[in-house]
Design brief:
Largest sheet: none
Structural class: mainly alpha
Shape: globular
Length: 157
């Protein structure tokens, strides 16, 4: 199911980036198109919520004539790091950075996980899985812990 949700998120991000004005971005018609392609309402809802949560603080729809709008920084890979990605996966990584989905700090754990996957280059599907894991971990409360403190006991269980 997560792969299908990732594909919907990709589709939504492409639609958002291609829309020239926020008025023309019609979520109802996009939902109808996705339903016609066989996606469920639950999958669409989950993808839309993800996009809103991750892009909610930003201006979701880019305006091409906006003056002075900063473009996001893009992390360029070193030649040694390029071995971890197929050309398509690297292009996908650049696309997510340029859309503002991933920032420079989120790219580092993605690269590390691709390094840990072994000698084989990561393709787009594997990269989508890794990116969704990294983004979901970013949403967690950094102060949250699984440690249990017993009263009167200085040990962590």
């Amino acid at each position: 199911m997560q792969k299908r949700v990732n594909k919907i998120i990709d589709f939504l991000l492409q639609e958002i980036s291609q829309s020239s004005e926020s008025v023309q971005f019609d979520l109802d018609s996009i939902s109808q198109r996705l339903l016609a392609e066989g996606y469920t309402e639950r999958e669409i809802d989950k993808a839309v919520k993800w996009v809103i949560m991750n892009l909610g603080n930003q201006e979701i729809l880019p305006h091409p004539k906006t003056v002075g709008k900063e473009t996001p920084s893009i992390r360029i890979l070193l030649p040694e790091e390029m071995r971890f990605f197929t050309k398509e996966a690297y292009g996908y990584l650049i696309q997510l950075q340029s859309l503002g989905v991933l920032n420079a700090l989120q790219i580092e754990p993605v690269i590390e996980r691709c390094f840990l996957m072994g000698g084989q280059a990561v393709d787009v599907e594997e990269l989508r899985s890794i990116i969704s894991q990294v983004l979901m971990e970013d949403r967690k409360d950094p102060s949250a812990t699984n440690s249990v403190f017993s009263p009167g006991n200085d040990k962590i269980n």
